[in-house]
């Protein structure tokens, strides 16, 4: 039995609070054909599940909500339940695949089972097939999700014999045991956290640095979270139905832009997204003069290895904070957009926004879980009446080597990010084997034109590349 973290639990509370929200992340991988047999794929997957034990665990809720939910082994786990197979209607092009992704991502995951699904999609042109994955956000964040992808896919094209190791689930706790353990957790964790704080205060020099950083970050966070953003039709009520689109670029092109025009890879990517939102708003007839699109930019707070990659301790829970940036859609010049984004992100990093966000997330551990759940419910219900954010843009570095599934090479992969009111659109960026893809999620009824945004991202990237050349 493993207690869920406050941040992970909040994703379940948010989903419970609003029928229009389904908080699973995902991806759509395109592979060379022919597609594998469903039993073959399930056998390969089961061989590697010991490396990601969370995939065989379900959520158990503590009676009366006195403690956060726990992860327990699913005694009835059957990998075949989670591996599904479907096919596109003819002609099986990108439009049909986008429609299928939107429909499948609109459906919530089964709470009585481990919170993930994988769909094998046939009927793509050129003898290709797709693998659509869904994993609840309470299990993984974007970075750890990329690590799980590396575990479930292989770097070797050779198909190895499938030999799933024996697995015996741990007995599930009874409601009484959950209640007793929850009371114990409620009593002991408060003491341990207060004791840890006391230890810090006895070392004022050690405490001084983090306090200064957090105070600076909170000041910057307050500016972006409390001060309302301009009203745009990018926010408002949403439905349970989703629309999906994508854009593509190459890492070489982005690096060429960075070398010639300055900035980081993330700066270039956000500049292209700025161009995309400008394109979308203009297509809707909106006046963009002097306007900005405020976005939340999730930031991984995982420790990094010496090679710059994120490290983990064998678990794949959420370790993420956030910064808030204003995308300058009022500027009509690509280079000016990039300069504005670069300068702003440099200032945000200097302001320690991500440090403050992580501190606030950690403080959630002090709140009784029932109050934490109530707080997230209230936040979601109040969100449609606020206008502090327009969208979310999350950038995840993926593996830069070819990956294979059942001996088939993955050609490209499109990331999926969930949305929750009042945000009607979200953008995810994923890099894989020299390519960079943008997955755009929108509400089917309120933002059915996310393909216009995707086209604008492609156009913005091409514009930056022409300036760099």
Order of helices and strands: EHEHEEHEHEEHHHEHHEEHHHEEEEEH
CATH topology of the domain at 228-353 and 385-468: Chloramphenicol Acetyltransferase
Unreliable spans are 206-215, 301-318, 351-369, 371-385
Structural class: alpha+beta
Estimate the strand proportion. 15-25%
Question: Could you name the CATH class of the domain at 228-353 and 385-468?
Answer: Alpha Beta
The mean pLDDT is 80
How many β-strand stretches?
15
**N/C terminus separation:** 56 Å
Q: For the largest sheet, list the strands in their spatial order.
A: 5-6-7-2-13-12
Radius of gyration: 22 Å
In short:
By secondary structure, this protein is an alpha+beta fold. The protein is 41% helix and 21% strand. The chain is built from 13 helices and 15 strands.
Explain what you see.
It is a single chain. The chain has 469 residues and is α+β, with helices and mostly antiparallel strands. It has a domain at 228-353 and 385-468: Chloramphenicol Acetyltransferase (2-Layer Sandwich). The chain has 13 helices and 15 strands. It has helices at 6-17, 38-48, 79-82, 94-105, 142-152, 175-201, 204-225, 251-261, 265-283, 334-350, 353-363, 369-382, 450-468, and strands spanning 2-3, 24-32, 57-60, 70-73, 83-87, 116-122, 128-136, 242-250, 293-300, 320-327, 391-397, 404-405, 408-416, 425-432, 435-443. Strands 5-6-7-2-13-12 form a six-stranded mixed β-sheet. Strand 5, helix 4 and strand 6 (116-122) form a beta-alpha-beta unit. The protein is globular and about 60 Å long.
Brief descriptors of the model:
globular, Chloramphenicol Acetyltransferase, six-stranded mixed sheet, alpha+beta, 41% helix, single chain, 469 residues
